[in-house]
Description:
Layout: H1 2-28, E1 30-31, H2 56-64, E2 69-70, H3 84-119, E3 131-134, H4 138-163, H5 168-172, H6 174-206, H7 214-221, H8 240-264, H9 272-281, H10 292-320, H11 330-333, E4 336-338, H12 339-345, H13 347-356, E5 364-365
Antiparallel strand pairs: 1-2, 3-4, 3-5
Amino acid sequence: MLGFNLRQLLAAFGFATILLYGLGAGLTCSLSLETAPAAAKEGGNVPGNWSGNVGDAEFWRAVRKGGQGTISIPDKKAATLVQSDGEEFRALRNGPLSQIGVWMLLASVIVISLFFAIRGKIRVESGMSGQTIERFNDFERAVHWLTASSFMVLAVTGLNILYGKYFLPALIGQSAFSTLTMYGKSAHNYIAFSFIIGIGLMFVMWVKDNIFDKYDLKWLAVAGGFFSRGLHPPARRFNFGQKSIFWAVMIGGGSLVLSGLSLLFPFEIPLFAGTFTILNFLGFDLPTDLTALQETQLAVLWHSLMALVMTSIIIAHIYIGSLGMEGAICAVSTGKVDLNWAREHHNLWVEEVESEGDNKAANQPAE
């Protein structure tokens, strides 16, 4: 008896829903079902018959697949009742993308921890000389910290948007989490412009010192001497590892900037249709007829992926510039590094500076 009543209740609810929707559709718009396959007729009648010459199943299948209706309001996007790509976007973002991001961040931390456990802190093997040489001037350090601090805020607030909902509400409560996320999102949007300025200035300042040369091949052949004591490959102002970080920041950061601007100004800065067109000339088979909403969804996915990659890279950069290498942090704190440190890691640069005689801090006692 209970099952019979339940079936009756579900049937009545379904009929009422369809009836209300049909009335609403009749008053506001009519769905165009050109994308739906022809419905099978039974004795000249279409099953259900409430929607004219299209069966109920075909009607809802067309809606489910993104079939558009005709509307009179200015926002033509409202003609699509269900955007099927949205479900795929949500499943990809909350599924594989989030999982890959977690493994990527964990792998970065695990590899660094293992390296530190095996290699330990990279010391200045000849010992600190007590003399310093200027590595970065005041303006260069200011730009570095502008970019670094901006990225840290962007990374933390971005990770909260992607992962915070899974654990923070249980720790701090729903209300506190919503407030934190709201202000974090605002900070993310506005501080992004500081990051844009930072990477722009970094490019102008350091691009000439980050062009790859023959010494980078020697550095790469011995992995920078990181795994061997007493081995110091020749390097100019920046070695191969530092140049790789620089170009990762420029390319990855530039990609983040473009996709971020596309999200800040949705439906106004399409990125992917044109990009896919170029890639198709290289042999890819990517869709180029993208709606504004699809462009935004792709921008979200790409922005999230590149942010996770960049965060993993920067974790390694922070490690080697602080805990991982003795004396390295001085370069961005005081701007001056020990002369022996400079000779071990950037001997060609030291020779250039000393030969030009334009570094007043060279061979000066450490403060």
